[in-house]
Amino acid sequence: MTTFPENFLWGAATAGHQIEGNNVNSDWWARELTMPGMELSGDACDSYHRYREDIDLLADAGLGSYRFSLEWSRIEPAPGAFSRAELAHYRRMIEHCFARNVTPVVTLQHFTTPQWFANDGGWLAEDASEKFQRYVTAATTILDGVEWVVTMNEPNMQAAIMTAMRRMQQSQGAEWQSPTVEGGEEKKQTHSDFLTYADPEIGRAFTAIHHAARDIVRAHTGAKVGWTIAAGALTAAPGGEEKLLEIRYGKEDVYWEGSRGDDFVGVQAYSSQEVDANGLVPHPVLPDNTLVGTSYRPDALAMAVRHAWAVTGGVPVMVTENGIATADDNQRIRYTTEALQGLHQAMNDGIDVRGYLHWSLLDNFEWGHWEPTFGLIAVDRETFVRTPKPSLAWLGSVAQANRLDQANQLTPASQVNAAATV
Questions:
Q1: Spatial distance between the Cα atoms of 114 and 119, rounded to a whole number of angstroms
Q2: Does 147 participate in catalysis according to the annotation?
Q3: CA distance 110 to 180
Q4: Which residue in the list 20, 154, 321, 366 is annotated as catalytic?
């Protein structure tokens, strides 16, 4: 039997742009309209209007926490002009979580920024921190009672996207390649190349912005505050030991170091990848590879948690994302079972982990692509009808028991199908 601590948070995560729909003031919306090879987010899952149903499905399944993001471009559609209506909308989401006894984990910025912010130089502009602080100050006015706040989602991946966009603009006719989707075999090496290196100075700049936002959240709320990091669970192939240290510092460790002094750090892990003397090694082609082209590696979660704990010097961990892009829900349950087993072992070894938030609650827009399905709930893109998958009921049963035992470790999807489709 694998029992988790009392008050351990069990839940699922989403991001505004990927599920809300019609995020027309954002830089990502503009990018979708102009970037070759990018699908459109469009109405997405229409969760802007259907958030109550989504929270209800999560709560009814037995999960007790929901991570979602506020959309900066909705709240501040023009510089310094804040929408009271949009702030009220997100406050209603928080209130509905409270009404369903669901703990909200609120992300203030999840990849997207207002288009005006991007036009003014984005995160590299001299006054980027001041602009973000202005927004964060406004956002804190609706956070009464919220216990967990994430300032920024995966700043290390945002830095990689910024680098990739610069390269694409210099390359005539280049097609969009999502940072989370490997694509076909001919793109694998290119994908690995442009996401390999990140300038540590960019990481230090993000850290300063995060710390300024953290101070504002602490001054105006009683919430625990941190940020989330994309963890590659990187390992060294023979001869790749030095290159691993070089790559991992710019891509991750400078951000883990920036988490020191936070109340928690969000670990986001999906797969593992090797580094040889030349750089990242493309994922091998195997039958159980995921729909985003990565290896089936549930052990990546424990690897990432252990590394985060070591580099931060013992900052409490929240698993803010972990999941698998698959059309086979039995594989999703197997993956999550194995990931949770490894996580529990890391906790037994003394690592302070406060919760597990599965990615994702819904099948959603995967940053330029619709095919990868990460969700515990399927969404019909024509009608927006939600159909819970067996994995939702399964994870809810784990949450309610607060443990993995022999029964729920081995429960096939067919046995929980009836409960999941209520």
A1: 9
A2: no
A3: 14
A4: 154
